[in-house]
Design brief:
- The complex is a heterodimer.
- Chain A contains no helices and eleven strands.
- In chain A, the strands form two sheets. In chain A, strands 2, 4, 5, 6, 9, 10 and 11 form a seven-stranded mixed β-sheet that branches. In chain A, strands 1-3-8-7 form a four-stranded antiparallel β-sheet, with no helix packed on it.
- Helices cover 0% and strands 51% of the residues of chain A.
- By secondary structure, chain A is mainly β.
- Chain B is mostly beta strands.
- Chain B is built from no helices and nine strands.
- In chain B, a hairpin with a 6-residue loop joins strand 3 and strand 4.
- Chain B is globular.
- The N and C termini of chain B lie far apart (35 Å).
- Classes of the chains: A mainly beta, B mainly beta.
- The interface between A and B is medium-sized, with 23 and 24 residues.
Protein backbone atom coordinates (compact mmCIF):
# COMPACT_ATOMS: atom_id res chain seq x y z
CA UNK A 1 0.00 0.00 0.00
CA UNK A 2 1.42 3.33 -1.03
CA UNK A 3 2.37 5.77 1.71
CA UNK A 4 3.32 9.43 1.39
CA UNK A 5 5.66 10.96 3.96
CA UNK A 6 6.17 14.69 3.85
CA UNK A 7 8.72 16.86 5.56
CA UNK A 8 10.02 20.41 5.65
CA UNK A 9 10.44 23.46 7.87
CA UNK A 10 7.46 24.23 10.06
CA UNK A 11 8.29 27.80 11.08
CA UNK A 12 9.22 30.54 8.64
CA UNK A 13 9.67 34.30 8.77
CA UNK A 14 7.86 36.61 6.34
CA UNK A 15 9.57 36.82 2.92
CA UNK A 16 11.27 33.41 3.32
CA UNK A 17 10.66 30.46 1.01
CA UNK A 18 8.53 27.52 2.06
CA UNK A 19 10.00 24.17 0.98
CA UNK A 20 8.26 20.85 1.47
CA UNK A 21 9.07 17.42 0.08
CA UNK A 22 6.86 14.37 -0.19
CA UNK A 23 8.47 10.93 -0.47
CA UNK A 24 6.42 8.09 -1.92
CA UNK A 25 6.87 4.62 -0.41
CA UNK A 26 5.43 1.38 -1.78
CA UNK A 27 4.68 2.72 -5.22
CA UNK A 28 6.04 4.57 -8.22
CA UNK A 29 5.54 8.14 -9.32
CA UNK A 30 4.82 6.91 -12.83
CA UNK A 31 1.33 7.20 -14.22
CA UNK A 32 -0.03 9.60 -11.63
CA UNK A 33 -0.63 13.23 -10.92
CA UNK A 34 0.80 14.49 -7.61
CA UNK A 35 -0.81 17.35 -5.74
CA UNK A 36 -0.29 19.90 -3.00
CA UNK A 37 -3.35 21.15 -1.09
CA UNK A 38 -3.33 23.44 1.94
CA UNK A 39 -5.70 24.29 4.76
CA UNK A 40 -5.33 27.39 6.98
CA UNK A 41 -6.11 26.64 10.64
CA UNK A 42 -9.86 26.34 11.11
CA UNK A 43 -10.56 27.10 7.45
CA UNK A 44 -11.28 25.26 4.22
CA UNK A 45 -9.17 23.49 1.65
CA UNK A 46 -7.22 25.37 -1.01
CA UNK A 47 -5.70 23.75 -4.08
CA UNK A 48 -2.06 24.76 -4.52
CA UNK A 49 -1.10 22.84 -7.64
CA UNK A 50 -0.20 19.53 -9.21
CA UNK A 51 2.52 17.87 -11.25
CA UNK A 52 2.35 14.91 -13.58
CA UNK A 53 5.01 12.23 -13.67
CA UNK A 54 6.18 13.80 -16.93
CA UNK A 55 6.88 17.06 -15.11
CA UNK A 56 4.00 19.13 -16.50
CA UNK A 57 2.42 21.38 -13.90
CA UNK A 58 -0.76 23.26 -13.06
CA UNK A 59 -0.88 25.96 -10.39
CA UNK A 60 -3.48 27.94 -8.49
CA UNK A 61 -3.66 31.26 -10.39
CA UNK A 62 -3.58 33.23 -7.14
CA UNK A 63 -0.26 31.60 -6.17
CA UNK A 64 1.24 31.05 -9.60
CA UNK A 65 3.86 33.79 -9.39
CA UNK A 66 5.29 32.32 -6.16
CA UNK A 67 4.87 28.54 -6.45
CA UNK A 68 7.00 25.83 -8.01
CA UNK A 69 6.26 22.12 -7.89
CA UNK A 70 8.97 19.73 -9.03
CA UNK A 71 9.42 15.99 -9.25
CA UNK A 72 12.45 13.72 -8.81
CA UNK A 73 11.66 10.24 -10.04
CA UNK A 74 15.09 8.93 -9.04
CA UNK A 75 14.26 9.66 -5.39
CA UNK A 76 10.51 8.95 -5.68
CA UNK A 77 9.82 12.45 -4.39
CA UNK A 78 8.02 15.60 -5.37
CA UNK A 79 8.42 19.01 -3.82
CA UNK A 80 6.70 22.33 -3.22
CA UNK A 81 8.43 25.69 -3.08
CA UNK A 82 6.45 28.83 -2.21
CA UNK A 83 8.44 32.06 -2.18
CA UNK A 84 7.92 35.34 -0.31
CA UNK A 85 5.60 33.85 2.28
CA UNK A 86 3.36 35.94 4.51
CA UNK A 87 1.12 35.14 7.46
CA UNK A 88 -1.62 34.32 4.94
CA UNK A 89 0.40 31.27 3.88
CA UNK A 90 0.15 29.75 7.37
CA UNK A 91 -1.60 26.43 6.85
CA UNK A 92 -1.42 22.67 7.03
CA UNK A 93 0.06 21.57 3.73
CA UNK A 94 -0.87 18.15 2.37
CA UNK A 95 0.73 16.21 -0.43
CA UNK A 96 -1.45 13.70 -2.26
CA UNK A 97 -1.30 11.07 -4.99
CA UNK A 98 -3.65 11.98 -7.79
CA UNK A 99 -5.18 15.20 -8.98
CA UNK A 100 -8.12 16.70 -7.10
CA UNK A 101 -10.40 14.43 -9.15
CA UNK A 102 -8.54 11.29 -8.21
CA UNK A 103 -6.76 11.59 -4.86
CA UNK A 104 -6.10 8.11 -3.51
CA UNK A 105 -3.43 8.64 -0.85
CA UNK A 106 -2.40 11.56 1.31
CA UNK A 107 0.58 12.62 3.34
CA UNK A 108 0.23 13.24 7.05
CA UNK A 109 0.08 17.01 6.64
CA UNK A 110 2.66 19.59 7.74
CA UNK A 111 1.73 22.71 9.68
CA UNK A 112 3.72 25.64 8.33
CA UNK A 113 3.56 28.79 10.42
CA UNK A 114 4.76 32.15 9.11
CA UNK A 115 5.58 34.55 11.90
CA UNK A 116 8.17 37.21 12.62
CA UNK B 1 -10.78 32.43 -8.51
CA UNK B 2 -13.56 32.42 -5.93
CA UNK B 3 -14.38 29.43 -3.77
CA UNK B 4 -17.49 27.48 -4.68
CA UNK B 5 -20.44 28.19 -2.37
CA UNK B 6 -21.62 25.54 0.06
CA UNK B 7 -23.96 25.79 3.07
CA UNK B 8 -22.00 26.15 6.29
CA UNK B 9 -23.84 23.32 7.98
CA UNK B 10 -26.34 20.55 7.32
CA UNK B 11 -27.78 18.17 9.88
CA UNK B 12 -29.94 15.09 9.95
CA UNK B 13 -30.99 12.19 12.14
CA UNK B 14 -29.59 8.69 11.75
CA UNK B 15 -31.18 6.92 8.82
CA UNK B 16 -32.30 10.12 7.11
CA UNK B 17 -31.00 11.50 3.83
CA UNK B 18 -29.29 14.86 3.50
CA UNK B 19 -28.12 16.84 0.48
CA UNK B 20 -25.24 19.31 0.31
CA UNK B 21 -25.21 21.86 -2.51
CA UNK B 22 -22.17 23.33 -4.24
CA UNK B 23 -22.77 26.39 -6.41
CA UNK B 24 -20.30 27.78 -8.89
CA UNK B 25 -20.45 29.37 -12.31
CA UNK B 26 -20.36 28.39 -15.96
CA UNK B 27 -16.57 28.70 -15.73
CA UNK B 28 -16.27 25.86 -13.27
CA UNK B 29 -19.13 23.63 -12.05
CA UNK B 30 -21.43 24.43 -14.96
CA UNK B 31 -18.76 24.08 -17.61
CA UNK B 32 -17.21 20.73 -16.81
CA UNK B 33 -18.22 17.34 -15.45
CA UNK B 34 -15.21 17.39 -13.14
CA UNK B 35 -16.84 17.95 -9.77
CA UNK B 36 -15.44 16.01 -6.83
CA UNK B 37 -16.42 15.67 -3.18
CA UNK B 38 -14.05 15.10 -0.26
CA UNK B 39 -14.89 14.10 3.32
CA UNK B 40 -12.65 15.31 6.16
CA UNK B 41 -12.83 14.20 9.78
CA UNK B 42 -11.24 16.50 12.41
CA UNK B 43 -7.46 16.33 12.37
CA UNK B 44 -7.39 13.96 9.40
CA UNK B 45 -6.52 14.24 5.74
CA UNK B 46 -9.43 14.52 3.31
CA UNK B 47 -10.84 11.44 1.58
CA UNK B 48 -12.26 11.40 -1.95
CA UNK B 49 -15.92 10.31 -1.91
CA UNK B 50 -17.17 11.27 -5.40
CA UNK B 51 -15.33 12.17 -8.59
CA UNK B 52 -16.48 13.42 -11.99
CA UNK B 53 -19.89 14.43 -10.61
CA UNK B 54 -21.30 11.02 -9.75
CA UNK B 55 -18.62 8.34 -9.64
CA UNK B 56 -17.62 6.58 -6.43
CA UNK B 57 -14.05 5.39 -5.89
CA UNK B 58 -13.64 1.77 -4.92
CA UNK B 59 -14.45 1.24 -1.25
CA UNK B 60 -16.78 4.24 -0.82
CA UNK B 61 -20.25 3.35 0.42
CA UNK B 62 -23.09 3.51 -2.10
CA UNK B 63 -24.92 5.67 0.45
CA UNK B 64 -22.97 8.54 -1.09
CA UNK B 65 -24.14 9.85 -4.45
CA UNK B 66 -23.47 12.92 -6.55
CA UNK B 67 -25.29 14.88 -9.22
CA UNK B 68 -25.19 18.18 -11.07
CA UNK B 69 -27.67 20.57 -12.61
CA UNK B 70 -26.42 23.69 -14.30
CA UNK B 71 -23.96 25.54 -12.08
CA UNK B 72 -24.89 23.58 -8.94
CA UNK B 73 -23.61 20.18 -7.88
CA UNK B 74 -25.01 18.12 -5.03
CA UNK B 75 -23.85 15.39 -2.69
CA UNK B 76 -26.52 13.19 -1.13
CA UNK B 77 -25.86 10.97 1.86
CA UNK B 78 -28.62 8.44 2.41
CA UNK B 79 -29.12 6.31 5.50
CA UNK B 80 -27.13 8.83 7.55
CA UNK B 81 -24.78 7.24 10.09
CA UNK B 82 -22.82 8.63 13.02
CA UNK B 83 -19.55 8.06 11.13
CA UNK B 84 -20.73 10.44 8.38
CA UNK B 85 -20.34 13.39 10.74
CA UNK B 86 -17.49 15.35 9.14
CA UNK B 87 -16.70 18.31 6.92
CA UNK B 88 -17.42 17.95 3.22
CA UNK B 89 -15.78 19.91 0.42
CA UNK B 90 -16.72 20.03 -3.23
CA UNK B 91 -14.20 20.94 -5.90
CA UNK B 92 -14.29 21.64 -9.60
CA UNK B 93 -12.00 22.03 -12.56
CA UNK B 94 -12.05 25.59 -13.91
CA UNK B 95 -11.60 27.42 -17.19
CA UNK B 96 -8.27 28.69 -15.84
CA UNK B 97 -6.90 25.14 -16.13
CA UNK B 98 -6.92 24.91 -12.35
CA UNK B 99 -9.09 23.58 -9.54
CA UNK B 100 -11.16 25.35 -6.90
CA UNK B 101 -12.63 23.99 -3.67
CA UNK B 102 -15.91 24.86 -2.04
CA UNK B 103 -16.28 26.69 1.24
CA UNK B 104 -17.01 23.47 3.10
CA UNK B 105 -20.06 22.06 4.89
CA UNK B 106 -20.13 20.65 8.40
CA UNK B 107 -22.46 17.66 8.59
CA UNK B 108 -23.92 16.93 12.01
CA UNK B 109 -25.71 13.70 12.86
CA UNK B 110 -28.33 14.53 15.47
Amino acid sequence: QVQLQQWGAGLLKPSETLSLTCTVYGGSLSGYYWSWIRQPPGKGLEWVGEIKDSGSTKYNPSLKSRVTISIDTSKNQFSLNLSSVTAADTAVYYCARGGVRSTSAWGQGTLVTVSS
Amino acid sequence: QSALTQPASVSGSPGQSITISCTGTSSDVGGYDYVSWHQQHPGKAPKLMIYDVSNRPSGVSNRFSGSKSGDTASLTISGLQAEDEADYYCSSYTSSNSYVFGTGTKVTVL
